[in-house]
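Per your request, structure below.
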């Protein structure tokens, strides 16, 4: 299987990192992809962000890359939904504008699609921090079961490759649109798998969501979905 992959980057803040993130997609060893940049929150004409993004893309001169302005989309969740609906592939990969990929990231995920049984619906990878912080988050490798999601978010957003028909983010929980979606999907029996290789680089900087994690409330997600949940006993 040699699927066409749709890579999406949502762009509200972080234009200064865009060339790095685009470059990490262009340098992928797996080449059957498109990249769509989605501008949201910058008015009917996309403002200065659309101009700068278009200029960066123009210098790349790569027909696989396009830019779309979403003037009526509010927030990251709606932006990712809109972007995903405009993609051509059956599989969507998310990349935060301030993060980067290892050149073999997509290649490794396609290998997993072809060789891991049962075939995962959502495939993540390990990652490492760079910028204001170094180190690696502790997440599980291989198949991820429900009990893990009841404790923490085991999927790195910028590492995700998933079936497009499963994309349905909401803004119910501040800054945790991804964890919210993963919890809903695991309860529906969808299959999650993490590749145990450092294939994503997550940038920590003054403006990153990581630095405003005190505003997030993962316990609210766990109470919502798992508060009265009892696992099926074999």
């Amino acid at each position: 299987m040699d699927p066409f992959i749709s890579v999406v980057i949502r762009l509200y803040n972080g234009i200064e990192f865009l060339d790095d993130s685009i470059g990490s997609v262009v340098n992928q060893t797996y080449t059957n992809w498109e990249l769509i940049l989605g501008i949201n929150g910058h008015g009917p004409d996309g403002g200065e962000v659309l101009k700068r993004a278009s200029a960066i893309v123009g210098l790349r001169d790569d027909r696989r890359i396009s830019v779309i302005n979403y003037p009526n989309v509010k927030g990251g969740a709606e932006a990712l939904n809109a972007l995903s609906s405009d993609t051509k592939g059956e599989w969507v990969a998310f990349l935060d504008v301030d993060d980067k990929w290892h050149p073999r990231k997509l290649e490794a995920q396609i290998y997993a699609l072809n060789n891991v049984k049962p075939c995962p619906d959502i495939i993540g990878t390990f990652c490492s921090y760079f910028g204001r912080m170094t180190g690696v988050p502790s997440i599980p490798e291989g198949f991820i079961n429900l009990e893990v999601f009841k404790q923490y978010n085991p999927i790195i957003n910028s590492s995700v490759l998933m079936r497009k028909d499963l994309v349905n983010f909401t803004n119910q929980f501040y800054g945790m649109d991804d964890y919210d979606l993963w919890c809903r999907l695991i309860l529906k029996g969808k299959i999650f798998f993490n590749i145990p290789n450092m294939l994503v680089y997550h940038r920590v900087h003054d403006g990153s969501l990581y630095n405003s994690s005190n505003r997030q409330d993962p316990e609210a997600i766990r109470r919502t979905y798992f508060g009265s949940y009892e696992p099926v006993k074999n």
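Residues 122 and 192 are 5 Å apart (CA to CA).

Regards,
D.
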